[in-house]
Structures are given as C-alpha cells and as structure tokens.
Amino acid sequence: MKTNHLYLSLIALIFFLPLSAQFRKYSNEFLNIGAGARGLAMGSAQIASVNDGTAGYWNPAGLVGVKDHPQVNLMHAEYFAGIGKYDYASIAFPGANNKRVIGITGLRFAVDDIMNTLFLVEPDGSINYNNIQAFSSADYGFLLSYAQRLKQSERKNVSFGLNAKVIHRSVGKFAKAWGFGLDAGLQIQSNKWKFGISGRDLTSTFNTWSFTFTEREKEVLYLTNNEIPVKSTELTAPRLVLGVARDFRLSKNLACLLKQISM
C-alpha cells in the first residue's frame, strides 16, 4: 500500500510543478499520430485497455500485459500522398515473474527530398538549377518504458508505468533540437471495467534548438529579408488523459468492448 501511495504522490508532484516558460501549441505533434493498427482503428481510445507492446506509446502501465515472451511491433505509414513518412517500432521484455516489463520504442516522422532553393538565383540575377540541393526534415522520438504490476487478484488488477522520453529533431544541416521528458500511467481493472490515466509530458518536455548557417547562407537570408533564427527552447505542455472501457459478452462467440477517453 505504501508503494501505491508513493507512485501516486510522484505523479501528482511532477504534474503540478509550476512552470513560467511559454508553451508551443503544436510542439512535438508527431508524437500524437498513434501506434499500432488496433489503436488507430479504435480512434486512439487505448488508455484504459491497451495491454500489448504498443502500451509504451499509449499508456506504459499496459505493458504488464506482455507476458512470458518478448513482443515486437512494427508499423509504417505514409501521409500526404507519400510526402510524409511515419515509422514506429517497439520491443517489450517481460520479467521472469511477469510482474515487471521493460519496453523500448522508436518513432520517426520525416519529409525527405525537400528542395533547397536558397542559392537558386546567382548574384548577377541569373538562375542556376545546379545550385538546388535536397534535404530532409525529420522528427525522432525514443521511449524507454518501465511497467510494474502493483496488485493482482481475481477481482482487481492495478499496474503502473513510466516513460523516459528523448526527442531529436533535425532540418537538414541548418537546425537541430534535442529534448527530454517524462510520462507516467496507471491502469485499474475491476471485474469487467477498465480505467486508465496517462500523464504525458509531466515535466513539460522541452526541445532546445540550435542553428548552423554559413556566412554565405546568412548573407542570402539577410538580402532576401528573412530572419536568421537563433538558439531557442520550446516546451510541450503537460496533459492528463483519462480512459474507461468495459467488456460486454453478447453471446458465446461474440463480445463487445466499449471505450471512452477524455483529454
């Protein structure tokens, strides 16, 4: 019981830490795409019911559903007629007693072959297409997850999970960012009811940007009235996501699972 109170106190303390910095509304938006065919098909209503290797993404507490053998999940999707490419991969390792699970998740969303026309026009006004070069804009997310079963009985199961999150974003050779954050989750199953809580970006995940431009690139940006960016930090605001689900047995061979989430 003391362990349960410790975990809940930790979640509350981190979530309500005062923050004075400014938040970006769409910071790290690629982390909200989703993971796994089942989760996407259910409209991302996975907080309370997820119990497979994708739980590291949805709610790390659900990783305790991975038992006996490691589980691997892979997904590839393309958006905007193939312009944007999204890749997801995860692996979960259950402990010997199936009470603890370690998970590793990797995500990438990228737009490749973007044309850099910064030097398309020569100083004399002529156009030189040989000066066009391609670059990529890519966002990477890495999650290290830990899940533990706190209570297990015939009528009630309780599990807790934690994510350590590392973000890397790059735009060609011009801009790079590194970020860190923390997620936590809780799942409670009582009879046919399932309840879930996922606290995302509890420490207000931050991205620290750095920019690298040559003197020639800075000159072109200045002459074309473009602002030359400087080092900056963007924050992702904490979010609390609640979920509830219930199993219904309609017949011997037919069952139904109803879900609801609140953000």
Keywords, please?
mainly beta; single chain; 4 helices; 12% helix; disordered N terminus; 263 residues; 11 strands
Q: How is this structure best described in words?
A:
By secondary structure, the protein is mainly beta. The protein has one domain (19-262). The chain has helices at 2-15, 37-41, 55-58, 215-223; strands at 71-79, 84-94, 100-116, 133-152, 156-171, 175-190, 193-200, 206-211, 232-235, 239-251, 254-262. Strands 1, 2, 3, 4, 5, 6, 7, 8, 9, 10 and 11 form an eleven-stranded antiparallel beta sheet that branches. A hairpin with a 2-residue loop joins strand 6 and strand 7. The chain is elongated, with a radius of gyration of 22 Å. The model is unreliable at 1-21 (pLDDT under 50).
Distance between the termini: 28 Å
- Count of distinct strands: 11
Beta fraction? over 45%
What structural class results from the helix and strand content? mainly beta
Largest sheet: 11 strands, antiparallel
Residue windows where pLDDT falls under 50 for at least 5 positions: 1-21
**In percent, how helical is the residue content?**
10-25%
The gross shape turns out to be elongated
| Average of pLDDT | 85
Instruction: Give the helices and strands as they follow along the chain.
Output: HHHEEEEEEEEHEEE
Tally the structural domains. 1
Concise synopsis of the structure shown:
The protein is mainly beta and 263 residues long.
